[in-house]
Design the sequence.
């Protein structure tokens, strides 16, 4: 934890995900922590804030989420490009030291079972809303956001500040096979 | 239709959405066409390609999608920033000339019930997979992509070319209240 990490009011939490970044999903169950990358995470509701995330049946994360009933969604930055690609392409089952090899440093937040990945720009702690049909038929998981935080150097007062923050804070958006785009220029549609 | 619009193989269709752009949802039923903006659309599966989109109960689009069992998801560009904001903030019920006022020009694709919005960068024609519980409890709709097209000036050979295309082709990513970001720099994570 550092002094730049501030709570985000729950009614503004959807803004952390609204621009469609690739995220990291962290989870913990029975003493096992894991982190995976997911491009398929999306806001679902404003109040209470909810989100969807696709967790393939082959992932260890899925078992941890189903076991613990909770997870954290966080936004990696340009600085974490390699980390994101590594946790997205390596398996904890095949490589027990996956997190260390990818350079993941975890931190804990009071009252949150899953660990948080250090140096991300924002974090959304979620409680799983069990929907067995969605989970089995579509690998689709629904979470209700119970708390959110952001690094004030890039998100503060309810707004992203990508245009004035250091460029290393930009969110990353995966296409396929390790090819990403960073978020770009701010644009304003006149009312 | 113009000569730049080319089919996208279904197994590459997820790449059109993977970076989390704000999209336009078009639909048609019983002679009524509509277009709305949605930031909450997300890939759900590769093969067959599926996606999720959140359609609020108050939208006319939702009734058209439920009535017709189909819709088109398309990606507006920087040039369509105002159009996107307008179709996302005006209602067809309150303003029957909403589409004309927003500058929407529609085109038709053979075999696709919903109209396509001209000058977008990519289009995904979808068949609704009815999931009444998701639709009622979460406003969450699942579509299976039956055909996809992209403008070859920005997406070709299975890849986005934002970094070399004219900047007006960039995708737009809504945060809140008419504040968007364009997609930015290409980044490659080494294997």
Sequence:
């Amino acid at each position: 934890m550092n002094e730049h990490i501030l709570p985000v009011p729950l009614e503004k939490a959807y803004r952390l995900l609204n621009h469609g970044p690739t995220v990291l999903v962290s989870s913990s169950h029975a003493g096992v922590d894991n982190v995976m990358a997911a491009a398929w995470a999306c806001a679902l509701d404003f109040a209470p804030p909810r989100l969807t995330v696709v967790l393939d049946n082959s992932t260890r994360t899925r078992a941890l989420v189903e076991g613990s009933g909770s997870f954290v969604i966080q936004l990696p930055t340009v600085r974490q490009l390699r980390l994101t690609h590594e946790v997205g392409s390596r398996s904890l089952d095949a490589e027990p030291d996956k997190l260390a090899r990818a350079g993941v440093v975890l931190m804990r937040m009071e009252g949150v079972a899953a660990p948080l990945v250090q140096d991300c720009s924002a974090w959304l702690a979620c409680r799983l809303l069990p929907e067995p049909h969605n989970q089995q038929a579509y690998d689709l998981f629904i979470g209700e956001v119970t708390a959110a935080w952001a690094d004030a150097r890039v998100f503060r007062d309810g707004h992203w500040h990508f245009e004035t923050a250091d460029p290393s804070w930009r969110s990353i958006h995966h296409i396929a096979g390790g090819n990403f785009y960073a978020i770009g220029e701010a644009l304003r549609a006149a009312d």
In short: The two ends of chain A are 39 Å apart (CA to CA).
